[in-house]
């Protein structure tokens, strides 16, 4: 019998939605030119990971689903946000536990099918609250994650998008993705684009925590092992960014790419294959621990 689930921290009082997304017919993430940034700087430190505190986190989710069952409802802690599971081609998200024994989300396994199963968590603003608009403020975002042994290799699933808002073809974006050998943070604003990449060979199926911070005209991404022993490795990049301005309604997503309408992108979903927990977004503060 499945174990009862505990609350999942994705951080945003008690709203829950579930749904299946319609499909975007073409991929709007065709890419954009990247303004060169300064040479990234690597920093390596030893750290003892602990579960993140909820203070200020906009992405605290409540997961009522018992472990091992398909996730159909996700609650968020802010009345200004709503979360839903959007799917394509029979994709599902399964409730599981992370390395701390806390609730986590198990995304679809990799498939060579022309139309593989896809499932993504969509977080949207209620009304015109603008709570996800980072503008020119400092902000930190990230997740805890464990990548499957096989996680990419087709034109549809060519990567593992962990958390993002916006697409490369849009005016603004912040995202973190991984291919198992690298963890990339990308932030695009009105004045330029910065990318910082940690070239770390991840131990597949093991848990890691990634955080990326925008501080003025710089970004820093760090990767900390959670279920294995190892150092925290950080990379930075510097250059002009300017304001991040999103069109109304652009969602934040966990586990893959969504169009500005909130629909699953059919052609290049970059479905994350693995498990995610503890999604994190703090706006208006410096680097988070």
Q: How would you describe this protein?
A:
This protein is mainly beta and 289 residues long. It has a domain at 15-20 and 53-179 and 246-283. 0% of the residues lie in helices and 38% in strands. It contains no helices and 20 strands. The chain has strands at 15-17, 23-24, 41-45, 61-62, 74-76, 81-88, 94-97, 103-106, 118-125, 139-147, 160-165, 173-178, 183-189, 192-198, 208-214, 218-225, 232-238, 252-254, 264-265, 274-283. The chain has an eight-stranded antiparallel β-sheet, with no helix packed on it. A hairpin with a 3-residue loop joins strand 15 and strand 16 (218-225). Mean pLDDT is 82; it is low at 1-7 and 9-54.
Integer average pLDDT = 82
- Specify the helix fraction band: under 10%
Give the strand order of the largest sheet, numbering strands 1, 2, ... along the chain.
Answer: 3-17-16-15-10-20-8-7
Tell how many strands the DSSP assignment holds. 20
Inertia-based shape: globular
- Radius of gyration equals 17 Å
* Quaternary: single chain
The residue ranges in which pLDDT falls below 50 over 5 or more consecutive positions are 1-7, 9-54
> What portion of residues belong to β-strands?
35-45%
Structural class estimated from helices and strands: mainly beta
| Succession of helices and strands | EEEEEEEEEEEEEEEEEEEE
N→C terminal distance: 37 Å
Largest sheet: 8 strands, antiparallel
* Count of discrete alpha- or pi-helical segments spanning 4 or more residues: 0
């Amino acid at each position: 019998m499945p174990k009862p689930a505990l609350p999942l921290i994705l951080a945003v009082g008690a709203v829950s939605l579930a749904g299946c997304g319609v499909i975007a017919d073409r991929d709007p993430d065709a890419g954009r030119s990247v303004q060169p940034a300064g040479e990234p700087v690597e920093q390596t430190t030893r750290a003892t990971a602990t579960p993140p505190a909820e203070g200020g986190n906009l992405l605290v989710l409540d997961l009522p689903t018992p472990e091992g069952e398909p996730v159909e409802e996700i609650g968020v802690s802010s009345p200004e946000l709503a979360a839903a599971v959007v799917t394509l081609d029979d994709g599902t998200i399964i409730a599981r536990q992370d390395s701390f024994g806390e609730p986590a989300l198990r995304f679809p396994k990799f498939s060579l099918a022309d139309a593989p199963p896809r499932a993504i968590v969509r977080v949207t603003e209620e009304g015109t609250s603008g709570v996800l608009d980072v503008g020119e403020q400092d902000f930190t975002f990230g997740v805890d994650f464990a990548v499957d042994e096989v996680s990419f290799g087709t034109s549809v699933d060519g990567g593992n998008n962990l958390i993002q808002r916006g697409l490369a073809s849009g005016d603004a974006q912040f995202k973190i993705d991984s291919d198992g050998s690298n963890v990339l943070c990308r932030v695009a604003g009105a004045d330029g684009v910065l990318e910082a990449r940690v070239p770390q060979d991840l131990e597949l199926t093991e848990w890691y925590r990634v955080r990326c911070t925008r501080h003025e005209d710089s970004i820093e991404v760090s990767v900390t092992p959670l279920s294995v022993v190892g150092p925290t490795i950080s990379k930075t990049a510097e250059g002009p960014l300017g304001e991040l301005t999103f069109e109304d309604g652009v969602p934040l997503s966990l586990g893959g790419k969504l169009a500005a309408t909130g629909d699953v992108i059919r052609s290049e979903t970059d479905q994350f294959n693995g498990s995610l927990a503890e999604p994190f977004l703090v706006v208006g503060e410096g680097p988070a621990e």
